[in-house]
Amino acid sequence: MKYYQKLLILLALMWGFVGIQRIVVSIIMPAIQADMKFTYTDVGKVVAVTGFVWAFGQLLWSALGDRFGRRRVIIACAVLASVFSWITGLVHGLGQMLLVRGGLGLFEGGPVAPAIATIAEEAPPRRRAMYQGIFLGAFLFIGLFVGPPVAVWLLQKFGSWRPVFFVISIPGLLISFLLAITMRESPTVAKAIKARKMGDQAREGEAHTQKVRLVDVLKYKNVILSTVNSIPVMAWLWIFTGFSSLFLTRVHHLGMQQVGVIIAASGLGAFLGEMSLGAISDVLGRKATVILAAFLSACFGFAVALTPPGASVAALTALFFFWGMFGAGIYPMYLATLPAESVPPEIAGTAVGLPSAVGELLGAALMPTIAGLLADKFGLVAPIWMASAAGIVICLISLFYVETAPRRLARMKDKPAPEDYLLRRFRPAKEIAVVPESV
Question: Domain 3-180+212-408 is classified in which CATH homologous superfamily?
């Protein structure tokens, strides 16, 4: 097995267990809500606080990873995220829950951008989106497919929600150890670190790495579009995961085992969507695939919202499967591949980190809070409508992307020039030929 394949497996497992650490609080929220007496607004705050702090952690750790090494950032953040996940089982009251879940977000936001940038460097370019899709898909595969049945089983076995957090935090520590003995630093980052340490190249290295990278990535059109797109995409994800269990138990009056099956189906669909649609985008193109997936996500979301109480578990399982598939299938293109392929590799970590950070702040933090307020006022179907409408917004924004898929570009007659990826104000001035006057 080649190094990049081993690395992909370990990074995907690491990211998957980060997923279950974050999502499990929503899966077993009916039990937590009953014990802690939370309102729906409180539930929105618990989901939102992780995303709010995640946003700042994302920018902090992605910049530190590009400068001091992605390997150490990935490993340290994975370890500390597991620690805060474990501590969640000890909290009493809303204040403690918000504090601990905020700490979780600070470190869980760290690994994603360095890992995506590392995969972009290590993986073959023609398979880049597929590998990034596998990595990102692991978050929802383990978090939503494997996680719900395990969480429900642990909840029923122990009779309390607290031991669930103690158990699901252990694998993250084990994977961190395996990464520590397997992973090596990314080539461009290792070169930059070496340059700073060498006296004759120190000045060049400092100039290269100490520039404000946020300004650098803001020159690129696809980075800006993905940053804007991150708000409805993250809104969909965290409203979807945050309120689905409550929606199914309170509106459709299903038991926790039935809810576990339906949520697991959405997680399986999410993983298959991120993996398959990422691969499809290698051929069809990133732009077209994002637009199609977003439209279908909206369609299946509206179908869920319109499904009357009393519908069969099989029907709800199918709807949630496809809603998860097309909603999550957007991720490899919008979050990882489009930004990373649009910028020089040495700033790819920050290019990925910016959309994720803004999405966490405005999509994952603000939108679930609004969804909780709407649920308290209009009922639990309101968050479902809100998550579904996000797909339409994503479609409209994605119309303006510049294509980056190598195989799609090879077939295009009018290929975008390098300057087309820059915002107009940052494009180099074109020389105008001066025609001499005839005498």
Answer: MFS general substrate transporter like domains (1.20.1250.20)
